[in-house]
Amino acid sequence: MCTVSFVNANGKIIITSNRDEKVIRPQAIEPKNYLINNKKIMFPKDQKSGGTWYAVDEYSNVLVLLNGAEEKHIVTGNYDKSRGLIVLDIIGSSSPFNAWQTIDLDRIEPFTLVLFENYKLYQLRWNGAEKNVLELDPNQNHIWSSSTLYPTAIREKRAHWFTTFLDTTRCAAELSGAKPEVTQTELFNFHRYTEEKNEEHGLVINRGDLMKTLSITQTVIDKNKVELFHHDLINKHDFSNSFIVI
């Protein structure tokens, strides 16, 4: 829930998320299909709250959570509901974007959502006092890092790594005569191996065996086909599923 990238590879949408979490938190349940408000939703479940940080509905809408809003906030510990349950409240509605517009977030800890709905891309933020909506260009590529774990300078550095990776990958493809778009495997490897020895601020972290990147989750949307891939970094276990949007 702490590093998210969005890539449009010539019409193929690839959304990838690294979940950074305290290791004492109960192990998440691998992605499964659930029925919420008569709507099929696939997501890995957080055993502590019952919520999630990454969800895909049957219409290929994707909602991904990052902790924190613009900057790191002071945690009061006096919150009414888990942010992961807010994710399910929103994705479980007929229109996630409309649900965001009306949902009451009073006494909810600050967070950022990346929403891809009906081929529109939104950054949705709650800073503890007000909501903010930013519609982004879905034809461009984007990356986010959680403000609770990565200060501004580090977030900017990570964005530079992302841009460099995309440029280098495209140049290499062009030189080899291949199509100049990045693949889902290359994006997974970016999330898995970038700055591998930098355990404090790399894409996969390990801060004193207390805070780690626990998993990488990725969705690929290619026309009406949706693929979900989930890699458990702790147990070295892979999960994948796919479906067709009718």
Question: What would a concise description of this structure say?
Answer:
With 246 residues, this protein is of the alpha+beta class. It contains 4 helices and 14 strands. Helices cover 21% and strands 39% of the residues.
Textual characterization of the structure:
This protein is 21% helix and 39% strand. The chain is built from four helices and 14 strands. Strand 5 (54-57) and strand 6 form a beta hairpin. The radius of gyration is 17 Å and the shape is globular. The two termini are 29 Å apart.
Given the C-alpha coordinates, what overall shape results?
globular
Largest sheet properties: 7 strands, antiparallel
Q: How much is the average pLDDT?
A: 95
Rg (C-alpha, Å): 17 Å
| Quaternary assembly | single chain
Overall structural class, as computed from helix and strand content, comes to alpha+beta
Task: Give the distance, in angstroms, between the N- and C-terminal Cα atoms.
Answer: 29 Å
N-to-C SSE series?
A: EEEEEEHHEEEEHHEEEE
* Overall helicity: 10-25%
- Low-pLDDT ranges: none
- Number of β-strand runs: 14
**Tally of DSSP helical segments:** 4
Query: What amount of the residues lies in strands?
Result: 35-45%
Features:
alpha+beta, single chain, 246 residues, 7-stranded antiparallel β-sheet, globular, 14 strands
